[in-house]
Amino acid sequence: APVSVWEEEEDGATFTVTSRQYQPLDPLAPRPPPRSSRKLRAGTLEALVRHLLDACTSGADMTFTAAFLATHRAFTSTPALLGLMADRLEALESHPADELERTKGVAISVLSTWLASHPEDFGSEVKGQLDRLESFFLRTGYAAREGIGGGSADLIRNLRSRVDPQTPELPKPLALPGDPPADPTDVLVYLADHLAEQLTLLDAELFLNLVPSQCLGGLWGHRDRPGHSHLCPSVRATVTQFNKVAGAVVSSVLGATSTGEGLGEVTVRPLRPPQRARLLEKWIRVAEECRLLRNFSSMYAVVSALQSSPIHRLRAAWGEATRDSLRVFSSLCQIFSEEDNYSQSRELLLQEVKLQPSLEPNSKKSPRSASRGGGVVPYLGTFLKDLVMLDAASKDELENGYINFDKRRKEFAVLSELQRLQNECRGYDLRPDPDIQRWLQGLRPLTEAQSHRVSCEVETPGSGDPPAPRVLRPTLVISQWTEVLGSVGGPTPLVSWDRPSVGAEEVPGTPAPLLTRLAQHMKWPSVSSLDSALESTPALQSPADPSHLSPPTSSPRPSRGHRRSASCGSPLSGGAEGASRGPGCGGGAPGPGASDCRIIRVQMELGEDGSVYKSILVTSQDKAPSVISRVLKKNNRDSAVASEYELVQLLPGERELAIPASANVFYAMDGASHDFLLRRRRPSSAPVGLASGPSASGTPPSEGGGGSFPRIKATGRKIARALF
């Protein structure tokens, strides 16, 4: 239907009129009159009150009353509004009785709706205006009648009960002020799903008590001005809880507790990188459980804390985290990506509200999650940002001084979404856990300056190191994936990287194709750190940005004769030059595609920490002491005690090959195995050679494949065939 839009001016108000002319289906039928709708666009405060009490408003402009009551605090106060309503009603006493009766009925309906939807507006400051309204209704004989919203006597009584509320009995705090602060590392004691439930319980209670009108940009955006500290208490409570959860994450990972505001008033618990990695993994599981509970507030609090500068710069701790945890962390970070104004989190929240709480069919946590209810807690920061942007983008008043009510309609659309989510939030069925609640209340989070100082003490920043990226991507070039992954026990197909996989038929067999593959794999991960590399954590740089591949300026360049190995997260110095100097690193037995470096897996007993495996790159220039030192460093041990350890190759048939201290590991090792053991030297070690169990087998080196000279000759011939 053709649409016509124009504006009309009337008694201090501007209306937008929309007219639609519909065509009849029968061309011979007469044309019906156009259908028009009129909405108030702007006006003076008195004109807005007249329109509010107009009996025709509820039918012609259905959203005006709700939008006016929800946003009136942005341009007036509740006492002033009640006074104008009383003025309007008193001015109608001289009008015809039927008009007065209609207006009084509308006033009763508006006041009833106002009290039901925004009871927080009626404080002690409106007592005088309520006296005026009560005297008016008694004077006009309307107190005992039944109007549109019920009798005025009951309404005034309900309003007075709201104005003079009884003092509620405050709950007894779980953590007393004199109690010692809680240990932030005790998060490992609690189950992740139980901790997520308690966080959701706290967040849901705060969100249900949230006053949507306090989120308006005109109020929240001016909260920091002098004299406005009392504004928006419900929003401040939600923000405080968000910051407390984020502070708990930072304090626990750093192992620090604040005892005061000063930089030195911090108690730090010594933790090793593997222990910090367990704390990182714990909080990632908590965030995942919050996602299953549809608690976007605590989930984003945990994710933002893990992305904060004091935490994401801890390279050693992130390097010890498991791949599964890092993959989950990456997916959670993508939810709150800032691209397109948080479009992913908005779409996900919309889907969660439309659908019933359902989890993945194969998830083991589905039954338990379903029993916890179907509520939802949004991240309030998204709505606060929208309202602040609306407040900044539109003027409060037009050039003629009229209140811009179109702006208030847009704000009401956001507030109504918050109210709808509050109704959804009532679907939780959770029970409080006093132990977890007491631990959460007893935490003493660090200040921003304290957390930065502790983080720098945990891992001292190097003077020439580049800024720590959020993704610690090793940069060693690897081409023969099938053999390499087989040597470290990983899966053969690599599907998690955003680049084509290398099939078995693509493994280079000659130096020329190999150099081609080197250029294609410059950003693939180092096999020397496959057991601890961060695969998919969100990075500060884009994946296409090669800046994280550049070597640090302070790192020494390798000699032109060979290339050194790269530890987890450390860029390979001169990676581009190394690719042009020789063939890539292979992980299999010597053959036509063999090279001068291999990947070995070294097991080391760490006492109470158990036994761990580390993948080490061994080149043709590495001797046993240097390999032992690198293994000790990767296990966070002092490399100065390398002489107290020996390197032993584990061969099939429960045999062992002890590598002498002066031997070249690359040439001394047996090609039948890539598994090694690092252990302390025995007081009386047997002669060097192959052994079966604790006693020497007596097998000649030539028979066992452990002799050095025949192996050197065979390897030399194979390398010559491969190169020439």
What does this 3D model show about the protein?
There is one protein chain. The chain starts with a strand and ends with a helix. The chain has 28 helices and 13 strands. Strand 12 (690-692) and strand 13 (695-696) form a beta hairpin. It is α+β, with helices and mostly antiparallel strands. The longest helix is centred in the middle third of the chain and has 22 residues, at 233-254. It is elongated. Among the domains are: 44-163, Son of sevenless (SoS) protein, Chain S, domain 1 (Up-down Bundle); 186-352 and 372-450, Son of Sevenless (SoS) protein, Chain S, domain 2 (Orthogonal Bundle), CATH 1.10.840.10; 596-681, Ubiquitin-like (UB roll) (Roll), CATH 3.10.20. The strands form 3 sheets. It has a 7-stranded mixed β-sheet, with helices on both faces. Residues 1-12 have a biased composition (Acidic residues). InterPro entries: RA_dom (IPR000159), Ras-like_GEF (IPR008937), Ras-like_Gua-exchang_fac_N (IPR000651), Ras_G-nucl-exch_fac_CS (IPR019804), Ras_GEF_dom_sf (IPR023578), RASGEF_cat_dom (IPR001895), RASGEF_cat_dom_sf (IPR036964), Ubiquitin-like_domsf (IPR029071). Probable guanine nucleotide exchange factor. Putative effector of Ras and/or Rap. Associates with the GTP-bound form of Rap 1A and H-Ras in vitro. This is Ral guanine nucleotide dissociation stimulator-like 2.
Quick take:
The protein is an alpha+beta fold and 724 residues long. Residues 1-12 have a biased composition (Acidic residues). One of its GO terms (molecular function) is guanyl-nucleotide exchange factor activity.
